[in-house]
Specification:
single chain; 123 residues; mainly beta; 7-stranded antiparallel beta sheet; 7 strands
Amino acid sequence: MSQAENFFCLADETQGIPPDLGPCVTTRVFPGDQAILSVVTLAPHAEGAIHSHAEEQWGVMLGGSGVRTQGREAFAVKIGDFWRSPCDVMHGLRAKPDGCKLLDVFAPPRAAYRVAGQGFATG
């Protein structure tokens, strides 16, 4: 049995499920059995809506910079920074003037992200 379906490329914009997370925010979701990865790109000054969900989320800044809001605090984040958002904690991200690209990992997998949809509560 070939394992080719389990290999992906960050640069290949045709791969993954493309939920619509709002203006100037694009994402590609890669669902697995125990976790889901989401590659998110925010245009300069774009914002991801403040939201929460039952799944734990880890994020790593791959490019650019932004301000991560988590709970009632804001944190400047740049390439190489990574963070954990515990279950049910309000969070969001605003890109700085250079925009940003990040990788989010959700565990367990977010059921809403297994299909294309709109908003942070897609499905």
